[in-house]
Structures are given as C-alpha cells and as structure tokens.
Amino acid sequence: MHDLSKYPFEIRTLSPEDGGGFLISYPDFNVCVSDGATIEEALANGREALAETIAALEETGHPVPEPGSGQTASGQFRQRLPKSLHARLVSQAKKEGVSMNMLVATYIAEGLGKRGRAR
Fold first, then answer.
1. Is-above-0.85 flag for pTM?
2. Which of 108, 90, 88 is nearest to 100 (CA)?
3. Among candidates 56, 52, 36, which has minimal Cα distance to 44?
4. Residue ranges of the HicB-like antitoxin of toxin-antitoxin system domain (predicted)?
5. Which of 12, 50, 47, 48 is nearest to 29 (CA)?
6. pLDDT per residue over 37-74, tens digit each?
7. pLDDT tens for residues 74-90?
8. What region, left, alpha or beta, does residue 97 occupy, with left being phi > 0 and alpha being psi -120 to 50 degrees?
9. β-strands 33-36, 10-13: how paired?
10. C-alpha count within 13 angstroms, C-beta hemisphere, residue 24
C-alpha cells in the first residue's frame, strides 16, 4: 500500500475562463490531475485521483513512481513588484495583445539570451 500523503502536489488557481476553483496536480505522475471549487475540495479530489492512478498502474503492471521522483522545475514563480512597474507591464501587455505572463516570460528569455551572448 502506498502512503498517498508522501506524494508532492501543486495547486493553482483556475481562471474564470477555465471554470474557476483550483487545480491540483502530482509531479510524479504525468496525467494525475483533479480540481475543486475550494482548496479543500481540490485536495480531496486529488487524493482520490491519485489513488485511482496508482491502482490503474498496478493493475496494468506498470511501475508506480516513488514519492518525489518527478520533482522538476514547475515553471512557476511568484514575484512581487512595485505597483508602478506592474502597471507598466499590464499596459505593455495590452498594447502587444498578450498576457502579462507571456510578456514577462519573453522579457526574461530575451534577457537570458543577451546575457548568454555576453559571456
């Protein structure tokens, strides 16, 4: 029996366009995700999805990953900004017709590219 509480998970807020609520995923498993209207509901639904995923792997003879074996960079980070800088980014993203996340990711990629060429 696997201790489900040892498997790391990530929870993120779903936008209203995506139905709202919260999405939970387990980095150790490629396709184990669930959601819920509240964090508590997402956790409960996620635990159930995890148990079902593990059971399906065992039934089909596939290996069950160890807790923490899928830990990789999540591709997410939070950054607090001065309100004035945030406003400039929002304005620029609107001008370019992209999300602020896409704009900032592009700026970071451009900066890393310039830095890499300077070395």
1. no
2. 90
3. 36
4. 15-69
5. 50
6. 999 999 999 999 999 999 999 999 999 999 988 766 66
7. 677 778 889 999 999 99
8. left
9. unpaired
10. 20
